[in-house]
C-alpha cells in the first residue's frame, strides 16, 4: 500500500464543513431550461407552485443566479450529527484489483437513513416547519428517501406521509418499520387512495409501480390536505443544491491533501447525489479552472441519459407536476422490477441534463448482475455492504481502475458511495441464487413511452 | 446547547489509535479464576485447549500478567478501514431530556457487521490464518458476531461455518444473506447435524435455541473437521482483550478534551463489549488513580449478574467446553425468546464476574419494553437506529441523566452504543404493534437450571 501519509478516511473538522450550499446553475453558461406550466407551457412562476411546494424551496428551485446559499443554523446543527461524512481511500480495493489507480469514495451511508438523502430531507423539513405547515407528503423508491424524510420530520415534529413504490414496499417490509419508528405513515404505490392511483391501476393492473406514479399520488394528497405540501427526494434543482454538501466536503478534503481527481463517478437516478457530488468540480470545469472526466452511471433497465430524449416531459406519471426539460424515457415508462429501486425514474434532473447535452459529462449504463458482482467484491474487501444504487458507481470505478492497470496510469478516481444495502438483502439473495435477470427495455418500448410527450414548442 | 467547543463527534487521528490491546487482568489484584478442565477440574493447560482453539488465542486467554499486547500490523491495517469509531456527544438527547448531564456514546455500529464484534473477529481470523488453518466454526446469537466473523474470514480467505441461534435465524432471514455475501455457511441451532444438537432437540423439542447450545454445536464441529478451530465472539478473556480498543480510543478521545466521566455504562451479554469499554477506566480505578461508577446493564429475561450465582459452571449447554467461574444462571438455562439475541447467554465473562464480586462495578437489569422505549426515543433525536442489545445501555444512560435533572448535577455519562438495529425491525414491529412481552424468569426456573452446576471444590 503506497502513499501511507494519506489516511484511510479523511474527516474534516467541524470548522471545515460548508456554511453555504453551492448553486452550480449560477456558474453555468447554458442555464437549465425553466420548468413549464403543464397547461399553458409558460415558465412556472413561484405563485403557481406554492400550492404544491414550500415557499422557500420554490425560491431555491427557481434561483439560477445566486452561487452560494447560506445553510440555516438549525440545518447545520443537524448536519453535525452525522456529517462530515468520510472520504475513504479504497486501499484494499486497489490492492485487490492490483491497480495503480488511486480510488476514493465519499461514503454517505453512515446515518440511519442509510444514504445521502438525509442531506436534503432535513433541509426540506426545516423549511416546511418554518412555513408553519402540519406535514408533508412524498414518494419513496428504495425507501431511502422515505426513511430520511421520516427522520427529518420526526426531528422537527412534522407529520410525514410516504407513498412507497410497490415493488420496494414488498421487497423491503422492514423499511416500513424504520419509517414507523420515526412516526411516518407508509402506503404502497399505486394505491386506491388517490384518483391518479386508481387510474394507473386501471390502466396497468398488477404494476409494481414507479417513482413517477408515486410522485403523482403524493402531489395529489398534498394539494387535498390542509397544511401539507409535497416534497421530493431527487430530480429537482433544490435537492441538487442541498446535496452540494457532498461535493463541497469532498473537494475540501481532497484539497487538504493536495489531491486532484481525474475521474469523478456517481450513480444517477433522478440525479441529485451525482449533481451534489460533482457540483464544485463541474463549477471549476465550466470556469476552465480544471478538467475532470465526470461520469454518470445508470441501470441499463432505466437508461434515461443513454437512451432517452432531451425534451420537455412530465415529471410524473399522472402529469400533474410542472414540465421539465430533461433526458427522459417518457413519463409513462415503467421500468422492470430491478433491484435498484432508487434509480427507477424515467427522467433526469434538468441541470445535469443540460450539462450532459453540453458535453460536460459522460453517461454509461450497466447491467444488474455486473453491478452486484462489483457490490459483492467491494463488500468483501472494503467492509461496507453497498446499496444496489451506489454499486452502479462502484462498477464503473472498478472498470476505470482496471483500465489503469492495462495502461499503467496512476489516475485518481473519486466515486460517490451513496448508501448501505442493509435493506437490500432480498436482492443480494436473488443474486446469490442466480435468479437475477438483466432485463433491458427494447427500442419499441422506449419509443412507445416517448410518444406521450407533451407538445412543447421551443 | 452548551459547551460548543466539544465537537458532536470526536474522531481520533490514525496516529492516536491504540497500537496495543490492554489486558486488564494484569492490573487486577484478585485475578479471575482460571478455566478448569471439565473432566479433572484442574486448571486448563494450553495443550489441552489446542484441539479447540487457535494457539495464539490460547496464549492470550491464559495470560493474566502482560498489561499490553501488541496489535499485529495486519489487524491495525484492517482496523483503519472502520476505526477509530466516533465518540459522540449526545447534544440532541440531552436537549430532549432537558438534563444538565453531559452524555457521550462510543458508537461501534459504523461498519458492515453493524457492531463492535468486528474488533475481535478480525483478530481471531488473523491468528487462525497465521496458524495455517482452513477455517473456523462459531455460533452467533443476534447475528452480529457471525456477520463480523464472515467479513473477517472473507478478508483472510478462511472458510467460516456459523451456527445461528434458531430464534434469531427465523427473525432475521436477511442476516443469513449478509453472511452469505461474505461467503459463510449458516445453520440454525440446535440442528440435527451434530450429536449435541440432536440431544438438545430430543430433550427440548421446539426450543428456539440459545447461545449455550450453539456454542456446543460449533465446538463439536471444529473438533471433527480437519484444519478447523472454534472461535467465540464474547465471554472469553481474549475477546475482552481485543475489545479493549473501544475503551482505549474512548479514553484517548476524552483525555484529548480534558473530559472525566462520572458514570460508564454498557450492556452485558457475554460481557466483551462492556469489558472492552471499561478496561482502561477500570485499570485506573483498581490503581486508585480515579473513581468511576461502572454499570453493566442486562435484560431482565436473562439476568446473570443480578440473579445468577458466582460459581464454576459450564460455558455451553452441551458441557464440552472448559468450566469458567462466573455469574451464571446455569448452562441449562434457556432464556425466553427476547429480541436482544446477543444478550441471551446464561453466564458472564470471568474477569467481569470477579470485578463485580469485588464490588468494583454495579449491575442492573431492565425490561424489554423499557429498552425499546429508550431505543425509539434515541433514534428520533440522535438519528441512529440502535440495536436492541445496545439499547439496554441507552435505557440506563437516560435514567441516570434524568436523575441528574432531579438533582441538578452535571454528571458526565459515557455509554457504549455497540451497534445498529437494521436487522431488528421485526422486534421494532412487535414493539410498535404492542405485541412485545416482558417475560422474567421465575425463581424456580433459575433454581432448577442452577441445580446442574458442575461439582467443583474451591
Structural description of this entry:
Two copies of one chain form a homodimer. Chain A has two domains: 3-19 and 82-114 and 243-450, 3-Layer(aba) Sandwich (Rossmann fold), CATH 3.40.50; 20-69 and 117-237, Rossmann fold, CATH 3.40.50.1100. Helix content of chain A is 42%, strand content 16%. The first copy, chain A, has 18 helices and 15 strands. Chain A has helices at 46-49, 55-62, 73-82, 91-97, 118-130, 144-156, 166-171, 173-181, 195-203, 211-224, 237-256, 272-286, 304-307, 350-357, 368-382, 388-407, 425-432, 443-450; strands at residues 9-10, 20-22, 68-70, 87-89, 102-107, 135-140, 159-165, 185-189, 228-230, 263-267, 293-299, 309-314, 323-328, 362-366, 412-417. In chain A, helix 4 (91-97) crosses helix 15 and helix 11 (237-256) crosses helix 12. The longest helix of chain A is centred in the middle third of the chain and has 20 residues, at 237-256. The interface between A and B is large, with 44 and 45 residues.
Average pLDDT of chain A, rounded to a whole number, is 93
Parts with pLDDT < 50 across at least 5 consecutive residues of chain A: none
The percent of residues in helical segments of chain A reads: 40-55%
Silhouette of chain A: globular
CATH T-level fold name of the largest domain in chain A: Rossmann fold
Strand order of the largest sheet of chain A: 1-4-5-15-10-11-14
Number of domains of chain A: 2
Query: Got a strand count of chain A?
Result: 15
Subunit organisation of the chains: homodimer
Number of helices of chain A: 18
Distance N to C terminus of chain A: 55 Å
Which structural category fits the helices and strands of chain A? Answer: alpha/beta
> Which CATH-level-2 architecture of the largest domain in chain A?
3-Layer(aba) Sandwich
Amino acid at each position: 500500500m503506497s502513499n501511507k501519509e494519506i489516511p484511510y478516511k479523511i474527516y474534516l473538522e467541524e470548522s471545515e464543513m460548508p456554511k453555504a450550499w453551492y448553486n452550480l446553475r449560477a456558474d453555468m453558461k447554458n442555464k437549465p431550461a425553466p420548468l413549464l406550466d403543464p397547461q399553458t407551457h409558460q415558465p412556472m412562476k413561484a405563485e403557481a407552485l406554492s400550492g404544491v411546494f414550500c415557499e422557500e424551496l420554490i425560491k431555491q428551485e427557481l434561483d439560477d443566479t445566486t452561487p452560494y446559499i447560506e445553510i440555516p443554523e438549525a440545518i447545520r446543527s443537524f448536519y453535525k450529527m452525522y456529517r462530515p461524512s468520510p472520504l475513504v481511500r479504497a486501499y484494499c480495493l486497489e490492492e485487490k484489483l492490483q491497480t495503480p489507480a488511486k480510488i476514493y469514495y465519499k461514503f454517505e451511508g453512515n446515518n440511519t437513513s442509510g444514504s445521502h438523502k438525509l442531506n436534503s430531507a432535513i433541509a426540506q423539513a426545516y423549511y416546511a416547519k418554518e412555513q408553519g405547515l402540519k406535514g408533508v407528503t412524498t414518494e419513496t423508491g428504495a425507501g431511502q428517501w422515505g426513511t430520511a424524510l421520516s427522520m427529518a420530520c420526526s426531528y422537527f415534529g412534522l407529520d410525514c406521509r410516504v407513498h412507497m413504490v410497490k415493488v420496494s414496499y414488498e421487497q423491503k417490509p422492514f423499511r416500513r418499520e424504520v419509517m414507523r419508528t420515526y412516526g411516518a405513515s407508509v402506503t404502497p404505490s399505486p394505491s386506491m387512495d388517490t384518483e391518479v392511483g386508481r387510474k394507473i391501476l386501471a390502466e396497468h393492473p398488477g404494476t409494481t409501480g414507479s417513482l413517477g406514479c408515486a410522485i403523482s399520488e403524493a402531489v395529489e394528497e398534498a394539494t387535498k390536505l390542509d397544511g401539507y405540501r409535497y416534497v421530493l427526494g431527487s430530480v429537482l434543482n433544490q435537492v441538487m443544491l442541498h446535496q452540494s454538501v457532498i461535493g463541497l466536503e469532498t473537494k475540501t478534503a481532497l484539497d487538504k491533501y493536495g489531491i486532484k481527481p481525474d475521474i469523478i463517478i456517481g450513480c444517477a437516478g433522478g440525479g441529485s447525489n451525482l449533481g451534489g457530488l460533482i457540483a464544485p468540480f463541474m463549477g471549476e470545469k465550466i470556469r476552465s479552472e480544471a478538467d475532470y472526466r465526470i461520469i454518470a452511471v445508470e441501470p441499463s433497465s432505466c437508461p434515461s441519459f443513454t437512451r432517452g430524449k432531451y425534451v420537455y416531459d412530465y415529471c410524473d406519471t399522472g402529469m400533474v407536476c410542472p414540465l421539465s426539460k430533461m433526458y427522459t424515457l417518457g413519463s409513462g415508462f415503467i421500468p422492470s422490477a430491478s433491484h435498484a429501486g432508487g434509480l427507477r425514474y424515467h427522467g433526469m434532473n434538468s441541470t445535469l441534463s443540460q450539462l450532459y447535452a453540453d458535453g460536460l459529462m459522460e453517461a454509461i449504463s450497466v447491467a444488474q448482475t455486473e453491478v452486484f458482482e462489483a457490490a459483492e467484491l467491494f463488500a468483501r474487501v472494503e467492509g461496507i455492504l453497498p446499496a444496489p444504487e451506489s454499486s452502479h458507481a462502484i462498477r464503473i470505478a472498478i472498470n476505470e481502475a482496471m483500465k489503469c492497470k492495462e495502461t499503467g496510469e496512476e489516475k485518481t478516481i473519486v466515486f460517490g458511495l451513496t448508501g448501505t444495502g442493509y435493506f437490500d438483502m432480498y436482492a443480494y439473495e436473488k443474486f446469490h441464487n442466480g435468479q437475477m435477470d438483466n432485463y433491458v427495455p427494447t427500442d419499441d418500448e422506449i419509443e412507445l413511452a416517448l410518444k406521450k410527450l407533451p407538445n412543447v414548442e421551443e
